[in-house]
Amino acid sequence: MTGPFVAVIAGSKSDQVITDEVSKVLTELKVSHEVQFISAHRSPEKLRKYVSASGADVFIAVAGLSAHLPGVIASMTLKPVIGVPVGVKLGGLDSLLSIVQMPPGVPVASVGVDSGRNAGILAAEIVAPSDPAILEGLRKMREAWL
Ligand code: RP5
Q: What percent of the chain is modeled with pLDDT above 70?
């Protein structure tokens, strides 16, 4: 594999509509990535193995309800983690607060509820300084708004 790599992990197959959005924008921006469905609550050991074996430069973690997935991933890696809260109950507020209220020293970034596209763009922005093609893709995406 060459170039930066983004690992997208969701807590459940029921989050796939959001991971599809993440995947779509990362593909548009030509960022190598893969999507996995691994629950922090139901299969913590599988998650630990995946995170420690992953060569990811950035993790995107998609989860609803008590969304501990991004924080648990952050506890297992020094790479940046972007959480995507999913609006399953309470308009996604439960998930959003679970993601952003991390203890000091273990930060997780968060995009808005169900904002898979923004998570993909943010991940691309994080890796773009080391990859001129991704930077150019981001520039073109913004130019297209004009
Ligand atoms: C979270 O609980 C998942 O990320 C999903 O958003 C939500 C519901 O999961 P399922 O019960 O559909 O597996 O862990």
A: 99
Distance 135 CA to ligand 1 centre (A): 34
Q: What is the pTM of this model?
A: 0.97
What pLDDT is attached to residue 48?
98
What pLDDT does residue 100 have? Answer: 97
Strand order in the sheet with 109-110: 32-37, 5-10, 58-64, 81-86, 109-110
Angle at Cα 59 formed by Cα 140 and Cα 129, nearest 5°?
40
Which residues have any ligand 1 atom within 6 Å of their CB? 10-12, 14-15, 39, 63-65, 86, 88
Integer Cα distance of 53 and 132 in angstroms = 27
Q: How confident is the model at residue 112 (pLDDT cuts 50, 70, 90)?
A: very high
Q: For residues 52-83, b (16+ Cβ closer than 10 Å) or e, as one string?
A: eebebbbbbbbbbbebbbbbbbbbbeebbbbb
List, in sequence order, every residue forming a beta bridge with 36; answer none if it has no partner: 9
Residue 74 and residue 90: Cα distance in Å, rounded?
Answer: 25
φ and ψ of 61, to 5 deg: -120, 120
What value does the CA radius of gyration of the chain take, rounded to a whole number of Å? 14
